[in-house]
Amino acid sequence: MNAQQPEAKLLVVDDEPNIRELLSTSLRFAGFDVTAAANGREALAAVEREEPDLAVLDVMLPDMDGFTITRRLRAAGRHFPVVFLTARDDTDDKVTGLTVGGDDYVTKPFSLDEVVARIRAVLRRTHPDEDNAVLAVDDLELDDDAHEVRRAGEVIDLSPTEFKLLRYLMMNPNRVLSKAQILDHVWEYDFNGDASIVESYISYLRRKIDSREDWEPMIQTKRGVGYLLRSADRR
User: Where is the Response regulatory domain (predicted)?
Assistant: First the structure.
C-alpha cells in the first residue's frame, strides 16, 4: 500500500505505553495513519487536531474513562466510530459502551489480527455507499452524503452503527430480517455470534425513530423471527 494513501486515519488511546506502542506500530504496518494518546485530555486534543476516521479507545484511563470521552465526542458532534478496549469481559461494560455510541468491543488480551479485522469491519459498515444517497420510507429519510436522518423533518442523531442498521432496514421495508442477517450485513465481524447485540441496537434505534407519540411506530419485532421497518401502507 502506498504510504501516502493510508487506509484510514486512526487514533489509539491507551495509558499503558507498551500496548499503545504495539498497537500503533502494528496498525501503521497494516496500512493505517495512526496518532497515539495516553489519556483523555490528549485524546480530545488529538481529535480536534487530526480529525480521525476511527478511534481505538481504552475504557480505563487515568483522567477520564473511555465512556466519558465518547459522550463528549458525541455531544460535540463527532460521530466517527469508536472501538473500545477493556481488560474486563463484562456484559455491563459492553452495554454501556454501545449506549454511549461505541461501535465494537475488544477484550484484553487480544490478538493484533483481531483488532485489525474489527477496525476494518467497522470502517466498512460505517462508510456510506456511493449509490442510494437518499433513502425514504414514509416521513423517514436517510441521507448518506450528509450522514443525516430526519423524521417528519426533524433531525435524529444516530451513532455510525445505528445509522448503518437503519439503512439496512430502510433498504428492505416491510421485509422481516433475522438477527443472523442483520449481524452479517451490519456487523460483518459477528461479535463472536452474540445476537443480543442486535436486540440492543434495535432498542436504541426504536427509542429515536419511534420516540414521539404522534409518530406511528415503524420498527417492529416479529417474535422468534426478526425485525422489520413497516411502511404506512402495510400497517
Answer: 9-123
User: Which of helix, strand or coil describes residue 57?
Assistant: strand
| Cα–Cα dist 223/129, whole Å | 31
| pTM (predicted TM-score) | 0.57
* DSSP track, 186-203: IISS-GGG-THHHHHHHH
Spell out the residues 6+ positions from residue 156 whose beta carbon is closer than 8 angstroms to its own.
149, 150, 208, 209
Domain ranges of the chain: 9-126, 161-229
Query: How far is the C-alpha of 127 from the C-alpha of 119, rounded, in Å?
Result: 12
pLDDT at 130 over 70: no
Report the DSSP beta bridge partners of residue 191: none
Cell numbers for 57: 479507545
CATH number given to 161-229 = 1.10.10.10
Q: Which CATH architecture has domain 9-126?
A: 3-Layer(aba) Sandwich (3.40)
Can 9-126 and 161-229 be said to share one CATH topology? no
179 close to 195: Cβ distance less than 8 angstroms: yes
**Residue-wise pLDDT tens digits, 28-57:** 998 999 999 999 999 999 999 999 999 999
